[in-house]
Amino acid sequence: MRLIAVLVAGLTLLAGTTACDPLADPPAGTPANNGQQLAGDAAAASAALAALPVAKWAAMTGYSRERFHHWTAHGSGCDTREVVLRRDGTDVATGKDCTITSGTWFSVYDGKSFTNPRDLDIDHMVPLANAWRTGAAQWTDEQREAFANDLERPQLLAVSSSTNRSKGDQDPSEWKPPRRDYWCTYAQSWITVKSYWKLSVTSAEKDALAEMLDTCR
Question: What is the pTM of this model?
């Protein structure tokens, strides 16, 4: 059974990068899934999606990005942003105080490659404002800080600034990565984060995630 599960997961990853887009395949040397933990196979993601509570958005009363303190320090002058840039890039070099000086990054949202870290943003897979509307308003500030700096789940990703800012705080019913070949992984990652942090989804969000999981086949 373990062998079957491994094969299914492998097939899912292949389905998520089917070359129907000329920008579908990352350049040679790009870390698999941009260094993130894999979110799991499509069947597991579908089951997790079905288990998520469905609710309308809560009010934004009291929301502020400052309630989700980021980026936290990780020693040697590094903060969470720099950790993600080092993880998601290829041949990344750093200077004094962990400042990124060079490297190459593949933005999985739009299939573009970059050599200037200033052209990249660190995207919160589940945006901070969306988290607030779907459960995080009830958390402590310490919980919100842990969420905003979560390096264990697929919550943080180095992507082009343009796609990150286009996404804003929208959920998958409102915004999807322009690179369709990434939809499978994007949906799995979104569901993984919401499941772990026990956040709800709206009906429209749930439907959009199910549609995106269909691209895993």
Answer: 0.82
pLDDT in tens, 18-57: 222 323 333 333 333 443 434 458 999 999 999 999 999 9
Q: Judge whether 216 lies within some domain.
A: no
Any domain includes 145: yes
Q: Are 174 and 168 in contact (CB under 8 A)?
A: no
Q: Domain range holding 38?
A: 21-199
Burial code of 165-178, b = ≥16 C-beta within 10 A, e = fewer? eebebebbbeebbb
The rounded distance, in Å, linking the Cα atoms of 65 and 145 is 10
Structure tokens belonging to residue 55: 């609710």
Q: How many helices (H) and strands (E) does the chain have?
A: 8, 5
